[in-house]
Amino acid sequence: MGTILDTILDQKRIEVEELKQQTFSKEKKPHASLAESLRNKSLTIISEIKRASPSKGDLNLNVDVQEQGKTYERCGASAISVLTDTKFFKGSFADLEKVREVTTVPLLCKDFVIDEVQIDRANDAGADIILLIVAALSQQRLQELYNYATSYGLDVIVEVHDEEELETALSIQPAIVGVNNRNLKTFEVTLETTERLAERIVSSGALFISESGIKTREDVERVQRAGAKGILVGEAFMTAASLEELFAGLQV
Ligand SMILES: O=C(O)c1ccccc1NCC(=O)[C@H](O)[C@H](O)COP(=O)(O)O
Question: Which residues cross the membrane (predicted)?
């Protein structure tokens, strides 16, 4: 039996064919920079809009994405990640477009990118950043999609989960590497993944983000100690009783 990642990628191949029937603006727009924030701020927080997930089910299904986006910006988010996958995360490109209307902070189109047309779609919807998951791509496709996205002026987070994926990522000399603490095949989450891969990332000179499973100030300190300059937080923000308090608590 295949993994959840295999199932998601099968669905993406269907969606890519559908997207190819549509036309998107290929305009190169000015893009707000995530890399600049990672270089200059002591902690870059990427706050995610995540209605639901394969591992946790519904998190905040009926969230008002514009209100959530505005609150993230007010609380000090350096970037906002919007899950655009519908089948597994109950998000959409419409969510991304709605958030774009109300904020100027950099927006990450969080999806499973396997084809250039998805990057056209993300750029058209107003994204500033895309994610490329090494586990979903060959080295050659990773390089091609990275070049394609950066030719739009988009920032790219190249996501890895283990040593082998990290070496593939570093072979294309990415500006930003994200370590996903969640194993996308088993759903296991541990911050040890960030700690294990940290030294190699820091010594490569890439900007370093830790993703998933971050809920407390202790978690933030742990990944910062390892060398991460940014964190990507979804579930904790989507289920927080008070976003303001959680934000303040993570940054103390
Ligand atoms: O979250 C999942 O269940 C999931 C399953 C399969 C593929 C990807 C998945 N999540 C995407 C993410 O990487 C997270 O949404 C993101 O890093 C935030 O994680 P968290 O703070 O733990 O919600």
Answer: none
Termini Cα distance of the chain: 45
Total domain count for the chain? 1
Catalytic positions are: 48, 50, 110, 159, 180, 211-212
Q: Tell me how far the alpha carbon of residue 181 lies from the centroid of ligand 1, in angstroms.
A: 9
Cα separation, 61 vs 239, in Å, equals: 10
Measure 159 CA to ligand 1 centroid, in angstroms: 12
Using CB distances shorter than 6 Å, the residues near ligand 1 are 4, 48, 50, 53-55, 180, 182, 184, 211-214, 232-236
21 in a domain, yes or no? no
Evaluate whether ipTM surpasses 0.90: yes
Q: Which residue has the tokens 């396997």?
A: 114
The CATH number of residue 178's host domain is: 3.20.20.70
Task: Supply φ then ψ for residue 85, to 5 degrees.
Answer: -70, 135
Does the global pTM surpass 0.95? yes
Residue ranges making up the domain that contains 156: 30-251
Tens of pLDDT along 144-159?
999 999 999 999 999 9
157 strand-pairing partners: 131, 176
Q: What's the angle, vertex CA 159, arms to CA 242 and CA 169, rounded to 5?
A: 155
